[in-house]
Design brief:
The protein has 218 residues and is an alpha+beta fold. Helices cover 26% and strands 20% of the residues. The chain is globular.
């Protein structure tokens, strides 16, 4: 059943094992309603991101919010999107520039050192935000197709930080609000690889015996 404000489409992926409803129902729409999320909802989303784990508790993620109708940030961030994403993403009432520290302070030497886990930690924070949004009836669409250098210049992002993605946030809208070529993608089923293709044990490529344990679903 759709929550208020959601598009009437079933995107649930069948699962063999129980998972949180927010994970099974989560999907990335391209169509958004012209309805702004409540400011407290947005604060809860970024509170969830703040609680995500990070290497050495560095907490490297930073989020720059651009709300439609509030200043010109939404238009400036929209201009940083790739041509294909500019077709639909500016329709989201909220766009977020998610950036991450390139380096961290070493607890051993006290000097700044490379931070190889930066994008991993940003991903954890973004996923925490997505799940929180989903729990409140909102949807998110993470976008890799944008120009980081344009975003850096447009918002004066310090050199220490790397723009990693743009996150669209809002209430999912109807597919027929999109250009025809995107409507098929919007209405298409959400698919995932079977567990045997992603969960190994013993050697690479060998499906884990966990999946054949007594009582496990077929």
């Amino acid at each position: 059943m759709s929550r208020p404000g959601e598009a009437p489409m079933d995107k649930r992926v069948p699962t063999r094992f129980p998972v949180l409803r927010e994970l099974a129902d989560r999907w990335s729409p391209r169509s958004f309603l012209d309805r702004a999320p409540d400011p407290r909802q947005l604060c809860s989303i970024f509170e969830a991101a703040r609680l995500a784990p990070s290497a050495h508790n560095t907490q490297p993620s930073r989020f720059l919010v651009a709300r439609k109708g509030v200043g010109d940030g939404h238009a400036r961030l929209s201009a940083c999107l790739s041509e294909a994403n500019q077709v639909w993403a500016p329709g989201a009432p909220v766009l977020v520039l998610a950036s991450v520290m390139r380096e961290r302070l070493s607890q051993v030497t006290g000097a700044m050192v490379p931070y190889p886990h930066a994008m991993h930690d940003l991903g954890l924070a973004v996923m925490s935000a997505i799940v929180q949004a989903q729990s409140m009836g909102l949807h998110c669409h993470p976008i890799a197709g944008f120009e980081p250098d344009l975003a850096r210049a447009a918002f004066r992002v310090p050199d220490l930080f790397e723009p990693g993605l743009i996150l669209a946030i809002g209430y999912a809208g109807p597919a027929d609000a999109l250009p025809e070529e995107l409507q098929l993608k919007e209405r298409g089923s959400r698919t995932r690889r079977v567990l045997e293709e992603v969960l190994f044990e013993g050697d690479w490529g060998l499906p884990s015996p966990l999946l054949a344990a007594p009582g496990s679903p077929p």
